[in-house]
Amino acid sequence: FHLLRRGEMSPEEVEQMLDDYRDRLQEAFDRTKNLEEKDPEKAIEQLQRRHREEEDHPLPEVDTRARPEDLEAVVHALVNLPEDFNVHRKLIRQFRKRDEVYRAGKIDWAFAEALAFGTLLLDGTLVRLSGQDSRRGTFSHRHAVLYDQETGAEYIPLNHIRDGQASLLVYDSLLSEYAVCGFEYGYSVANPKALVLWEAQFGDFGNGAQIIFDQFLSAAEAKWGQTSSLVLLLPHGYEGQGPEHSSARLERFLQLCAEHNLIVANLTTPANYFHALRRQVKRDTKKPLVLMTPKSLLRHPMVVSSPDDLTGGRFHELYPATTDPAETRRLLFCSGKVYYDLLQALDEHEDKRRETAIVRLEQFYPFPKEAVRAELERYRNAERVLWVQEEPANMGAWNFLRYRFDALLEDLHGDCRHRVGYAGRPPSASPATGSAKVHQLEQERLVQDALG
């Protein structure tokens, strides 16, 4: 009816669309009458077989590398804005600096995202992003849409890379996570060749869309054979901002994981983010991607990647440790921001640096079983193996990972005496404390527990 009011469709066209829709429903209903009834025992056997094969057969790898000339074209579009467009003076400096940053190999998170979007647009892939503050970015990091300071006109640099490219659509949405996430899920189903992303202002607010996660995102393929490659961007990390601005409830998504229904990740490098986004489009198998995205890491000096990482790299489900196994006493597994907290602490304790190995688990699900097994084998003489997380013990990835690690350790050592340990916050009813001082004490304590 909105299209009718705008005069973009006639009443006859609307009626024809409704008739076509009813016909499709009737055809689908008629087909169900001719389906053979499944043997319940065979159905159960098939489900059990899929469950056994789940972790032994990961999703196939795809080539996510970008062409150097495409990256150069995207950088050129980001740097060279129209001369008659009055960009805010702070932003114009920031954008013009990107060419220098690119040459220096210091691509940060937002820059890597723009390069991923831009190279996909050049491949002909429509990119659509919506969220409560997605044009600017909640943390003033994205600035996908620029505004003329005199006229208010809009300009999207990534829509001006090259003739014939696809479009980038970026929307600041209304404050209903349930409605907007549901709409974007539907868009991803209707246009499976597009990269469709929904971003929560903070990951904590994603709980407003929990019905979409439970009923559609995680279960639609199992219930109806309906696939989606929707990407959820959920800012996550413990930085003293309180219980409503710390946790995207990683544990809830991991509890939903089964039968290769989701991809759940918490990344540590801009390059891995770049490849994760491109993988969503390049892979034939369509699965929703749930990303715990950073906040303080957006501008962390260590969180940078080089152009070579984008043109010659790939997505890493796990980053191996680099410490000499012969000197290693403690083997730590972690993900996301806490990795950089551990590195900072090791810089202050030279003696512990030599004997501490850190493995970054970038993807939780599908669980990279063989990659984890390889690290446990390489450091089999370590005295302790620990999972380190910022979240309380009843949240985060601990309960999802502990039995998987224990099974691998038992298989490696041939007994059940070897168990993975835990370093993190104690169980808590609230995701985080409301006191900045208590937060700092908790953070220091979990790092100390991890390093011993």
Give a concise summary.
By secondary structure, the protein is of the alpha/beta class.
Counting DSSP E segments of at least 2 residues, the number of strands comes to 14
Query: What strand order characterises the main sheet?
Result: 4-1-5-6-8-7-12
Helicity range: 40-55%
Q: Which architecture of the largest domain does the CATH hierarchy give at level 2?
A: 3-Layer(aba) Sandwich
**Straight-line distance between termini:** 65 Å
Strand content: 5-15%
How many domain units? 3
CATH class category label of the largest domain: Alpha Beta
- Kindly report the average pLDDT value: 94
**So what's the overall shape?**
globular
The total of helices stands at 18
Oligomeric nature of the chains: single chain
Please, could you describe this protein's structure?
The protein has a seven-stranded mixed sheet, sandwiched between helices. Helix 7 packs parallel to helix 12, helix 8 (about 175-190) runs parallel beside helix 9 (about 210-215) and helix 14 (about 340-345) packs across helix 18 (about 435-450). Helix 12 (about 270-280) links the parallel strand 7 (about 265) and strand 8. It is an alpha/beta fold. It contains 18 helices and 14 strands. The chain has three domains: about 1-30, no CATH class; about 70-310, Rossmann fold, CATH 3.40.50.12470; about 320-450, Rossmann fold (3-Layer(aba) Sandwich).
